[in-house]
Amino acid sequence: MNYILPLFFGFVTAVIGIIPPGLINMTAAKVNLKEGAKNAFWFIFGAVIIIFFQAYLAILFANIINVRPDIVILLRELGFGVFGALAIYFLLIAKKPKLKKAKIEKKSKKKRFFLGMLLSVLNFFPIPYYVFITITLSSYDLFSFHPFAIFTFVSGVVLGSTLVFYFYIRFFQHIESKADYLLRNMNTIIGSITGVIALVTLFNIIRYYMQQ
Fold first, then answer.
1. Coil, helix or strand for 47?
2. CB–CB of 72/135 below 8 Å?
């Protein structure tokens, strides 16, 4: 069995999911600017630990769902509704977000570690995200729910997440203005992505019922 693919897909999906400017990566960058790299890396370490468990639990949940075709098609139908609604909201309704200047007070490394964990716990996006990703990959025989493959995929997620956080810490001063540009256009980006996902999901639903 090829375990390079799970590592690769875990890495790539983590980078795609985390690279847009968000609370965790922007806070990591701010901590680095105000308090130095040590506190920033402790913050990242706390965040990545939670991401590891979120991704692992998501894959276990996906494995349960994957053996029930009736649940899979139900989730696809729900997913089409959700992603379609999100596409309409972000493209036509939502106001343009603005980059908020976070206020960072100097804290100890221990407090930064737990802050990283807390912000990751409050971020529920990774669980449904990795459920959707692994079920989709499995449907194309690109992922297996073998224990070692799961561990390899999650390891890729951790590596990808850490790389993105490091990128924000290392190059934040160079990308801060671009981050503001990305945020101003984030609705269009998210709306386009969710729209494409909704169309792909609709195609899979239609194909499923045509095969029945």
1. helix
2. yes
